[in-house]
User: Which sequence fits this backbone?
């Protein structure tokens, strides 16, 4: 690991974990709302596997947020896995299914920024968390 990564201030690690956890809880609430309103297939235009993936995020977003709040490395690992796969799924949905673009999808814009935050800060944050 690069030496300056060891010197990430504790306050910065805490701030990133809190912000990421809060945003993951926002995702949790959106997915739970979709589940309660529409069941396991909230998006009729999307294939079943994609609907099930997004529905599963009600659980996985919650787990990642709780792990981050508790200062666990697995929270960072799970958040990175969620963001990478969710970003890929949403880009596929926007470009491959809806034939739209990033400029027309503010939700995808926000998700992309969040993914950059999570994936970009993970190497700095993870080192300071416990197993």
Assistant:
């Amino acid at each position: 690991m690069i030496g300056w990564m060891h010197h990430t201030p504790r306050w910065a690690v805490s701030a990133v974990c809190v912000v990421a956890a809060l945003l993951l809880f926002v995702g949790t609430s959106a997915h739970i709302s979709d589940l309660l309103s529409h069941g396991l297939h909230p998006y009729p235009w999307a294939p079943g596997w994609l609907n099930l993936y997004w529905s599963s995020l009600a659980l996985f977003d919650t787990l990642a947020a709780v792990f981050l709040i508790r200062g666990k490395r697995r929270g960072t690992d799970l958040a990175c896995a969620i963001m990478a796969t969710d970003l890929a799924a949403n880009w596929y949905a926007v470009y491959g299914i809806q034939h739209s673009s990033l400029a027309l999808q503010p939700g995808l814009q926000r998700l992309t920024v969040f993914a950059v935050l999570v994936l970009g800060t993970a190497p700095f944050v993870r080192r300071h968390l416990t197993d």
DSSP finds four helices and no strands in the chain. The longest helix spans residues 10-38. Helices lie at 10-38, 48-69, 73-97, 106-126.
